[in-house]
Amino acid sequence: NISASGTIIANTFQSTGGDVAGIEFSDDLNITGDITASGNISASGTQHIFGGDVGIGTSPVFTTGTGLMISDSTQANLRLADGSDYIDVANSAGDLFLINRKSDGKIRFRVNNTTEALRIIEDGKVGIGTTSPTKALQVEGDISASGFISTLSHITASGNISASGIITANQYGGNISGSSTSTGSFGRTSTTTLDL
Q: Which of 50, 120, 129, 178: CA 20 to 30 A from 184?
């Protein structure tokens, strides 16, 4: 064994291999240069702190700030695991994938820490303001549009549909109704509008 209370300076530290476990340090190891390994690097501590950019498969390049960069010629993945359940964030051919690998897993978007703004459930339905959407897109609350809303099927509302302009339809029949307080107009795209 070599024991020193001061500094040991050497160009190279090398393990002889064989039955020797390696080179062990029981205290801090401060290195001002690069660490290069042809094998695995493992650490049993609870904190691993890096002072700059971190690259996996590449030398990271960031124009602003610092971060983690993962590079692969086919698909770069970041996996977040919770036991046997995990989610992948992947980049493949310039496309971003957010994949919940659990068969009944959902994707939730939160704001203000606890407020859920949007949810995508396991069959692809999207809910805004609801946690269990039953349609491809279900919104609980008001929807506002400054342009056209177009559909090849039906628009169903349990509340009011209001417009500051004209609501038009290629076809309409007995399903459009109004009251004496209704304002605006309904009509076909190529015919006279129906005033309510």
A: 129
